[in-house]
Amino acid sequence: MTSLLWKKFVGRLKVIFVLTLIFFIPNNLDAQAYQIKTIVIDAGHGGKDPGAIGRKAKEKDINLAVALLTGQYIEKYMPDVKVIYTRKTDEFIELHERANIANRNHADLFLSIHVNAVSNSRVTGASSWLLGVGKYQSNLELAKLENSVIEMEDNYEEVYQGFDPNKDESYIIFNFNSTKAYFEQSLNLAQEIQDQFKNRVGRRNYGIHQGPFLVLHRTTMPSVLIELGFITNSTEEKFLMSKEGQEFMASAIFRSVRTYKQQIDAKNKKTVILANQKEPENENSVIEDHGVTYKVQFLLSKTELAPDDPAFKNLVAVWKYKDGAFYKYTTGNSSDLSVIKEIQNNIKDRYPDAFIAAFKDGERISISEAKRLIKAKN
Fold it and tell me: Does one domain contain both 327 and 242?
């Protein structure tokens, strides 16, 4: 190796080392102590940065509307969680400052909300993105697009220590994050988000991906970048522009956060007796069902919750059953539908998505079938 080539090689190593020190995030998440107390919601783009532009809408406006709605749902139905927004108006927030807001406030979760765009107008679907080096060039191209926002910032060359969002070699810094800090937690949340988008809102599942996003790389907590859909598809653009569409997507994100928090809380619990069960002492927490009964289904989880989980507080006759990969939880147990409707009404502020379900000998049946069987019995 010539002297000149050696100097260039050493010089590049120095740059990589400096960038690694700046961007590297240690994996300091204590799984036992981890709780969801503060969430930062980031509405991507804003102000002089419109983001992707469709036929009628600008990405920045959709992002802000969904971010604010998501925060409102969390504040209303998860009052023990503090919500912080990177922006609440149409203003430009520097990319590094978005992550700094989360880090300064010791956030436990960071959600960055965006809308996707591609040249093919037929492509649709919602996706979730985690920090990582994408396996495909398309992943890198999306990251370049999102990271290019820094070029609108003053003095960005100095702030980002020479990082050029348009050059492939700049992304070598992401290879040094070998600990994959917070990856498992971020993935768990992303899975909940995608499940909600597909199963509750009926959106096409565009999947969970990894990409080298600066905004995620600089955060020191589990983080997910959400792409609500494609503004370049006219049908999806119309949906994301509508009040109903924005409410659907925001409520889906909220429900995924609530489920994720419940799972985290359950892992931190050690006792094995359901709290505040208003059943006779000789009753088990799992009710033995015989005959036809109605219940209020209020919760779904991929993991089995601890018996004293806060989700069960002040609920009567809590019961769980396994349905595929999910644990489903109900409250109440009566063949009198009016009694169950009252229970549903009593918990609607806490569980707005709760619904009445019918069972025969512990197996789920339709409401109409339950009514028929109860009528025939009586």
Answer: no
Residue 202 resides in a domain: yes
Least confident stretch, 103-107, 167-171, 337-341, 351-355: 167-171
Per-residue DSSP letter, 172: G
321: its two tokens: 């059953």
* Cross-sheet strand order for the sheet of 109-116: 82-85, 38-43, 109-116, 223-230, 126-131, 205-211
The answer as to whether 171 is a domain residue is yes
Record the pTM: 0.60
Interatomic CA distance for residues 276 and 298, integer angstroms: 17
201: which DSSP letter? S
Give 90's contacts (C-beta < 8 A, 6+ positions apart): 46, 47, 60, 61, 64
User: What pLDDT does 163 receive?
Assistant: 56
Cα–Cα distance measured from residue 220 to residue 38, given in angstroms and rounded to the nearest whole number = 13
CATH assignment of the domain containing 47: 3.40.630.40
Assess contact for 39 and 78: CB atoms under 8 A.
Answer: no
The whole domain housing 346 covers 292-377
Residue 149 lies in a domain: yes
Q: Which residue stretches of the chain are H helix?
A: 3-23, 59-77, 95-104, 137-147, 156-159, 183-199, 214-217, 234-241, 243-267, 337-346, 367-377
> In this predicted structure, what is the pLDDT of residue 94?
86
* pLDDT tens digits for range 362-372: 888 888 888 88
277 within domain boundaries: no
Tokens 């859909």, located at residue: 229
Q: 45 vs 64, 71, 142, CA distance in Å?
A: 9, 17, 14
C-alpha–C-alpha distance, residues 314 and 308, integer Å: 11
For the chain, the domain total comes to 2
The domain that contains 345 carries what CATH number?
Answer: 3.30.70.1070
Q: Are residues 259 and 189 in the same domain?
A: yes
